[in-house]
Amino acid sequence: MSDLTPFVVLAVALVGAGCAALLEQVVSGLRVSPQAVLTSVSRTLRQPLRAPQVRDGWLYHLAPGLLLVAAVAALAFVPWAPGFRGIDLSTGAIGFAAALAYVTPAVFMAGWGAGRALTVLGAFRWLALMLAYAMPLAMVITAVAAPAGSLRPSDIVEVQHAVPMALVQPLALALWVPAALAVCFLAPFDVAHCDEELGGGVFSEYRGLDAALVALARRVLLVAVSGMTVVLFFSGWHGPLLPAAVWMVAKTAAVAAGMLWMGGRVPRMEIDRALELAWKVANPLALVAIVWAGLVTLLFYR
Predict the structure, then answer these.
(1) Is-contact 222 298, C-beta < 8 A?
(2) What is the number of other CB atoms lying within 10 angstroms of the CB of residue 28?
(3) How many CA atoms lie within 13 A of 102 on its CB side?
(4) Most exposed among 30, 92, 185, 214, judged by the fewest C-beta atoms under 10 Å?
(5) Model confidence over 172-195: pLDDT tens digits?
């Protein structure tokens, strides 16, 4: 059974999105100001909705909502403490990846629905990128879940009570980080909406409530991916002295800050290089990570 109601999951998503916005200010070197975040949100919401001249209206306006639903659904699979979980399934880790899969049609709908050449190009770039990185993402989850003998996120946390998976499976972590950056629209994999090449890409036509939903979804997505990274590799809520939920929140904030820091300092990768990295390097190494997970499980966890 679920330990969190949908309303609590939504509250976690909103609070997490606000914290992610403040983290962006910290990483960017700006003075942390909740008022600046609220002012930006208010300014965005006051903008009138825009309808592009060439568009598929249904796809264009449904895309932000679907993106937000996918981000909140992914967040719901993240356990924050014992007894403080959302969707607590025996296959929750794969359910998390399945929720992320809906980000791809949402982004494609946004680009295709707007109908501009650059938005459509950004949509096809994103589709190619996610097809390439979905496989290593799923295989890494499988490799990390092997020692626990379960795909339930809380079980994966419990098996790390002594040693975090980041130390047991560093290769899996090295493969997870690029895929996580790609899913969160962060450099060097922000090829779908890069301003220098596509003028904002898939989201460039959104204004008003649509733009606010996109911004909210992207921040919730960052929180969800950062939280699951902590669950899979950094022992989840385990830690001395402090309450379990405090450890989980602190680790999630640290991972999110690290991802934002990397996204702001790593040069953007060309789409062909990003795809080559996935197909020729990440996917074969993900198979190696699965084999290593089997060996580690047999030797140390059984």
Answers:
(1) no
(2) 10
(3) 19
(4) 30
(5) 999 999 889 988 888 888 877 776
Contact in structure between 44 and 212 (CB atoms under 8 Å) = yes
The four Cα atoms 202, 11, 73, 140 give a dihedral, to 10 degrees, of 90
Spatial contact of 145 and 156, defined as CB atoms under 8 Å apart: yes
Q: 292 with 144: CB under 8 angstroms?
A: no
**In this structure, what are the phi and psi dihedrals at residue 88, rounded to the nearest 5 degrees?**
-105, 80
HSE toward the beta carbon, residue 245, CA cutoff 13 A: 5
> What's the pTM?
0.90
In tens, the pLDDT along 96-145 reads 999 999 999 999 999 888 888 888 888 888 899 888 888 889 999 999 99
- Contact call for residues 179 and 282 (beta carbons, < 8 A): yes
Q: Say which amino acid occupies 201.
A: G
Beta strand segments in 86-175, E: none
Q: What is the largest CA-CA distance in the chain?
A: 62
Please give, one letter per residue, the 3-state secondary structure of 167-182. HHCHHHHHHHHHHHHH
* Dist CA 241 CA 49 (whole Å): 49
**How many whole angstroms separate alpha carbon 247 and alpha carbon 223?**
15
What is each CA distance from 138 to 67, 179, 231, in whole angstroms? 20, 10, 15
Q: How far apart are CA 252 and CA 41, in angstroms?
A: 24
- How far is the C-alpha of 56 from the C-alpha of 125, rounded, in Å? 19
Could you say which DSSP state residue 84 is in?
B
- Residue 25 buriedness (CB in 10 A; 0-12 / 13-18 / 19+): middle
Question: What residue has token string 């609070």?
Answer: 15
